[in-house]
Amino acid sequence: MNAPSRRRPRLSVVIGTVCFLAFLALLFYGVRQSGRGDREALPSPLIDKPAPDFTLPLLHEPGRLVTSKDLAGTPYVLNVWGSWCPECRVEHPVLTRFALTKRVRVLGYNLKDEPEDALRWLEQFGNPYMLVLADRDGRAAIDWGIYGAPETFLVDADGIVRWKHVGALDDAIINDELVPVLERLEDGK
């Protein structure tokens, strides 16, 4: 009688396990790095180009449509947000303080949100916006190159996109990036 032999795992099982573990390690590394990366690394192709044409309803008056042409003549900051966006809540007090300076019109762009949720969110946290555009299905966002929230654009009086930031605004970003661009616009440069 033969002694019981230990079964060795098949080579294919070992290789499969090693590949799977390597894949998980790579995935984990990628997820960790994406949280640290510079979200501005992909510059907007809209910088120094006309803002996309759009026609969107107002969140507070869904029967009233606003077009890109309606906004011409005065610069504006367009802030993309949603009640579903945790980072929007982080940037909201910063944006509110900036809007109170009345240095430039601050418009809200509510992305892929239920109107009731968006209105409730503004009721809870305050409404810093001169008006809020509602892009419920996200179709107009495609033309803007918006892929999430928060994102913020500065559009000059001629309708040209002059600045974009992806991610939550903070005081340093406003003071070090947005304000200098606004100053150049005010100086006519």
From TrEMBL:
NCBIfam families: dsbE. Coiled coil: none annotated. The keyword Transmembrane applies. This is DsbE family thiol:disulfide interchange protein. Belongs to the thioredoxin family. DsbE subfamily. PANTHER family: THIOL:DISULFIDE INTERCHANGE PROTEIN DSBE. It is a single-pass membrane protein. It comes from Luteimonas soli. The chain crosses the membrane at residues 12-31. Keywords: Cytochrome c-type biogenesis, Disulfide bond, Membrane, Redox-active center, Transmembrane, Transmembrane helix. CDD domains: TlpA_like_DsbE. The lineage of its organism: Bacteria, Pseudomonadati, Pseudomonadota, Gammaproteobacteria, Lysobacterales. The keyword Nucleotide-binding does not apply. Residues 45-187 form the Thioredoxin domain.
